[in-house]
Amino acid sequence: MFKYIVNKLKKVSTNHIFKQNNIYPDPESEKAIMGSVVYCIHHKEGCQWSDELRKLKAHLNTCKHDAVLCAAQCGAMIPRLLMQDHLRYTCPRRRANCEHCGKEFSGSALEEHQGNCGHEPVYCENKCGAKVQRRHTQQHVQQHCSKRLVPCRHCGQRYTQDTVSAHSALCSRAPVPCPQRCSAAPARDELDAHLRDHCAAGSVACAYRDAGCRFKGTRPALERHSEESTQAHLALVCALAARQARQLEALRGAVARLGASCSGALVWRVPDWAARMAEARAKDGVELVSPAFYTSQYGYKLQASLFLNGNGAGESTHMSVYIKILPGEYDALLRWPFAHTVSFTLFDQSSSPDRACNIVESFVPDPTWKNFQRPSKEPDALGFGFPRFVSHEMLKKRNFVKDDVMFLRVKVDPSKIVAV
Hints:
The structure is a single chain. The protein is an alpha+beta fold. The chain contains twelve helices and 21 strands. The strands form eight sheets. Strands 14, 15, 16, 17 and 20 form a five-stranded antiparallel β-sheet that branches. A four-stranded antiparallel β-sheet has the order 13-21-18-19, with no helix packed on it. The longest helix is centred in the middle third of the chain and has 30 residues, at 230-259. It is elongated and about 170 Å long. The relative contact order is 0.06.
């Protein structure tokens, strides 16, 4: 206490040097100091006490803010104000019951027990929102959790418990009743095949419906119909084949017309010349025919033909060329006999165009000749042209054949086209 009093002295003169043996307490001064008003040393902690200095010690014996040894003798210095909380919550030697299981533990054991108590409610680890006692979490996850994975009983795929019902309503492998009300219950993704191929209650058409059979009935009735109608089906198929053959021929003619020239001129490319010449020499009467072409969009239909080894007067020595008049779609509107100048040009494929020497032959049709009258369904076998168009010797001298290809142009004089 004397030290505390000395610390309260405002100032000690540094002009005097005191020796310990020369210091004597002054009764009057000490009395005055002890009677001075002071605040509790725990004033900053919130204690509002203030009184004479001599009463401070007695106050500290009861001050709630003054630290004393833990009542449970854990060794900690605890302010009296916090002693109850310390004994209840933080003292290592306290005794307390677990709020979940009710068992009594010491303070340190309770801290270890908390977070492991099997009776403590915890949220489901699958985040389904449920709270269950820790000891029952595994059972909850396996048997009751709405977020647990369960297999679809139809397709076997795994879904959460709260979505598997919605999946089952749309599952492709779930059985569905047949809309034809037969006894079968096919899987949803097999319903179309069931209706098409297996349903006994549905009405199905005869397999020969495209041929014209109009039967339609149940599958048992269809089987009987198929056995009893073999001859009728055969007749329908034959009629269909005939119709399709006519349609195919018409389509071929339309395609050929679309690809044919309508300018009155045809440049005919004859490939594989050497092989074709060898064939013409080995066999008699080998004829090459060109694609058909027209003098105009609605004009005469023509076709050129070649005998590489010659024909008639040019056989074995010359190449012969002819023009044929074919039956056309617009022959009824054209003027007959055919009376337009026709020219043939064999191109010299010289690398220098200035040195090229083409062979050109032309003729004016004789209106009295049968070849130029309106053709019947079968065209003239030979046509009209030049049996000695070009000799084999001449073919060798010039570049009429180059890279095994020959080019021949057939042209009708457009000034005399009289098609309507």
